[in-house]
């Protein structure tokens, strides 16, 4: 046997060994998580963060959608154009997100099914197809924004052409998705780590920007739109913060994650999942607020009110805060795009499989998702403006996910002991009415001058 053949065989054996080792470590990590979760369910009712760790994870995957490139685009535009004025929208949207993600997580725990599967099972066929169609359009808008964000990040940091950066994004996303083969825990750990990178980056940016704390405190609680364009940015912030696809996804992430033996286990898991949600979305909310605050303190306060492009924000940060701030911004944007692209693909699988009962290979879904973003790049459309418009579209799609969510979580025959309480149901419907009212406000401001 010649040396070339021996090297080929050695390489094949090494690759096989690496795959087996990776699979073993992944399975071990997931199995240990399940064992610890079961021990916690069997233990007396004593709580500690360490004992709660096996239940943490699903909300961190969902939280990626709340710090995706669409958030970068809308928050930076809002902060540069209106200062701290729209900070209250971020706070309100984050509280709405916590409520809705709690209801979504409860669906998976109580029923063992995800929200699209419930729609497929209980709703009339035509209504189910309508909801599926809107969900698919929302998924396309989501994937477009996330893919573009990662491509812009590669472009800014590595100075490669945007089209090449788009292809690099596709390859990197495939790599992250490969973790699914090793169980749910490795994916959760990696995604949580990526959120930590984004949060750390914006913590540094916020310290460097030295924002006005009194303005932050005032505008966090006083509703204002700040003049022309404020309502559209407010709707964009809402669409970028509370996203339809992640409402569907969260119900799938908790669906059968921890084997349950009855109603008592379900109540314990749900109680710990609420902790997961408050931690993950609390971090996401702080990051969103930091995005707007940094833009207000750095751009609006210095007269750079026309910063509307992510690339422009990257370049403008250098003379104002130094080269390090630009690099930190670019890293945060890139990590945000890659992690959210992965989560968007997972959500697409849930939407397609749940509403229609179809299963499409992840690589096919990712390849199809790449096409619109690469087309936008190739045709020379403004990437940042495309991001903002996609978030506005998501806000209009949001009621189509929220209304079925409230409907099913309010049905005792579906939810059993985890059915919504009366005050939860009323609050959820008020929130839904607020979302619809904000969308109608945007439509009025857009079309009323032309009537």
How many distinct beta strands? Answer: 0
CATH topology heading of the largest domain:
Amino acid/polyamine transporter I
Helicity range: over 70%
Strand content: under 5%
Overall 3D geometry? globular
Measured between the Cα atoms of the first and last residue, the distance is 83 Å
In the CATH hierarchy, the architecture of the largest domain is Up-down Bundle
Write the CATH homologous superfamily of the largest domain: Amino acid/polyamine transporter I
Q: How many domains comprise the coordinates?
A: 2
> Roughly what is the average pLDDT, rounded to an integer?
79
Please give the count of helices.
19
Low-confidence stretches: 1-28
Please provide a written account of the structure.
By secondary structure, the chain is mostly helical. The chain has two domains: 1-51, no CATH class; 56-450, Amino acid/polyamine transporter I (Up-down Bundle). It is 80% helix and 0% strand. The chain contains 19 helices and no strands. It has helices at 3-42, 49-52, 58-63, 69-82, 87-111, 115-122, 125-158, 162-177, 184-209, 213-219, 230-241, 244-253, 263-298, 310-321, 323-356, 362-379, 383-409, 412-415, 422-447. The radius of gyration is 22 Å and the shape is globular.
């Amino acid at each position: 046997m010649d040396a070339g053949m021996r090297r080929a065989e050695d390489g094949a054996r090494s690759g096989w060994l690496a795959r087996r080792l990776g699979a073993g470590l992944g399975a071990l990590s997931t199995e240990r998580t399940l064992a610890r979760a079961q021990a916690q369910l069997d233990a007396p009712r004593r709580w500690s963060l360490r004992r709660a760790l096996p239940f943490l994870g699903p909300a961190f995957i969902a939280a990626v959608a709340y710090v995706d490139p669409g958030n970068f685009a809308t928050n930076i535009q809002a902060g540069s154009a209106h200062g701290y004025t729209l900070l209250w929208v971020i706070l309100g949207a984050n509280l709405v997100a916590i409520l809705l993600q709690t209801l979504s997580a409860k669906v998976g725990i109580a029923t063992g099914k995800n929200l699209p599967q419930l729609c497929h099972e209980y709703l009339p066929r035509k209504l189910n197809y309508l909801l599926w169609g809107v969900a698919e359009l929302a998924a396309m808008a989501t994937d477009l924004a996330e893919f573009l964000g990662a491509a812009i990040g590669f472009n800014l940091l590595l100075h490669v052409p945007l089209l090449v950066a788009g292809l690099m994004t596709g390859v990197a996303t495939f790599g992250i998705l490969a973790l699914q083969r090793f169980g749910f825990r490795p994916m959760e750990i990696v995604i949580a780590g990526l959120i930590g990178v984004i949060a750390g980056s914006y913590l540094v940016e916020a310290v460097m920007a030295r924002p006005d704390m009194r303005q932050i405190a005032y505008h966090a609680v006083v509703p204002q739109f700040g003049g022309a364009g404020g309502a559209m940015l407010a709707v964009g912030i809402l669409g970028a913060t509370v996203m339809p696809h992640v409402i569907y996804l969260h119900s799938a992430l908790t669906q059968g994650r921890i084997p349950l033996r009855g109603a008592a286990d379900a109540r314990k898991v749900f109680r710990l999942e609420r902790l997961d949600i408050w931690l993950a979305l609390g971090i996401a909310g702080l990051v969103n607020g930091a995005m707007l605050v940094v833009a207000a303190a750095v751009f609006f306060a210095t007269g750079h009110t026309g910063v509307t492009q992510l690339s422009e924000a990257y370049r403008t940060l250098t003379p104002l805060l130094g080269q390090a701030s630009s690099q930190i911004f670019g890293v945060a944007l890139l990590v945000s795009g890659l992690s959210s692209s992965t989560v968007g693909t997972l959500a697409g699988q849930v939407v397609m499989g749940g509403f229609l009962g179809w299963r499409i290979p992840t690589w096919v879904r990712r390849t199809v998702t790449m096409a619109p973003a690469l087309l936008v790049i190739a045709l020379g459309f403004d990437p940042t403006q495309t991001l903002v418009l996609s978030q506005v579209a998501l806000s209009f799609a949001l009621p189509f996910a929220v209304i079925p969510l409230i409907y099913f979580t309010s049905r005792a025959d579906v939810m059993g002991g985890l059915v919504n309480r009366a005050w939860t149901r009323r609050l959820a419907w008020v929130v839904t009415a607020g979302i619809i009212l904000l969308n109608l406000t945007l439509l009025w401001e857009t079309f009323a001058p032309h009537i």
